[in-house]
Structure formats: structure tokens, C-alpha cells
Amino acid sequence: xxxxxxxxxxxxxxxxxxxxxxxxxxxxxxxxxxxxxxxxxxxxxxxxxxxxxxxxxxxxxxxxxxxxxxxxxxxxxxxxxxxxxxxxxxxxxxxxxxxxxxxxxxxxxxxxxxxxxxxxxxxxxxxxxxxxxxxxxxxxxxxxxxxxxxxxxxxxxxxxxxxxxxxxxxxxxxxxxxxxxxxxxxxxxxxxxxxxxxxxxxxxxxxxxxxxxxxxxx
Length: 218
Prior knowledge:
This protein has 11 helices and 4 strands, in the order αααββαβαααααβαα. The strands form 2 sheets. The protein has a two-stranded antiparallel ribbon. It has helices at 5-23, 28-31, 39-42, 65-77, 83-90, 94-106, 123-132, 135-138, 158-167, 181-187, 192-204; strands at 48-49, 55-56, 80-81, 177-178. It has a single domain, classed as Cytochrome c-like domain (Cytochrome Bc1 Complex, Chain D, domain 2, Orthogonal Bundle), CATH 1.10.760. The chain is mainly α. α4 (65-77) packs across α5. The radius of gyration is 17 Å and the shape is globular.
């Protein structure tokens, strides 16, 4: 994929996020006491959100701390426009974000629904993956991001991945959507049908993401 100024801008943002995380390490034990607003969605296997459309909420247990922190900061800044998530993120301090991120990054437990092993992508999907240069950021098997602020996506709920990818195609002035120059440039190359195919394949891969149910929801 041809590198543009948006590519280098994205790398600069990622570097700044990584440096900030290194300077403000999270405390997973402290984070365990700060997730009351998270567990009602992310701690229930199969839980579905209904905004902006019905889809499973993302699995965040086992996700990288750098990405979780970067995502929450994006909600705070309005770069991600989801009213519920923005309201939650705005209530968190920088240390709260670091602690919550550390908690979920280190959380282990049985996956609520282990994804089936996926074979090689079809010729069509392989072309789409190459066109988007997805592995160049998300790494081997889409589970080893090349930067801490990038997400693991292998095994993530396919319907969530699809909604997330579409959100980068939404006009920046819209009530919903996400503003990210790199991801917007990538997502806008594809039709929604192609994004759905990408999401279906990546979601079918084995990954490290999971839902670890809270004891009250077991």
C-alpha cells in the first residue's frame, strides 16, 4: 500500500500513545476495582449492543493495554463517537484508563465461545487482505500488532468488526463513527459487502480475545 502523510501521521500518533503508556503504567489490581461500568456489557457472554446497529460488543479481555488505552482516549477526544462509550471514557482519569487497560490486558479465563479454526482465506478474501495491507499493522494471524496502540483482531466478533470498519467510512461530522486518517483511507477502499467478508474471515481465526464472565453473571 502506498504510504501517504496519513500513514506517517498515524505512526506518529501511535508512537505518542506508546510513550504515554510507558510513562503511566497501569495497575491491574487497581483496575479490577474500576470496571463497574464495563462489566455490564463486556462481562456478559454473547451480549449485544443495539447502537448504531445490533452487534455483539467487542471482546476486550486479552486485548493489548496500549490499544484499550488509545481507544478510551479517542472516545474522550471525540475521535470515536459512541455516546455511551464517550460518557464512560470522560469519567476516567489518565490513571484510571491505564489501570483498566492493564486489568483487561492481563485477564485470563476460558473463552466464552472459542472461534473455529479457519482455513486459508478464499482467493477473494486474500485479495482484499492484500489490498488493505491489514497484516502490516495487525501482525501475524492478526493477533500480534506491530504497535501497542493497534488492536488484536483475530477471533473478534465478526459483526462487531464489520460495524467498526464501517464506522471509519462515516462523515466526520456525523453523530456516530470514528475519525482516524489511516483507517478511514483503508476502509473507504472497500464496499460494505467487502468489509463484511473481511470481518467474517478475521473473526473466524483463532485469537487471544475472550469474554471472561464476572462471577455475578456466571
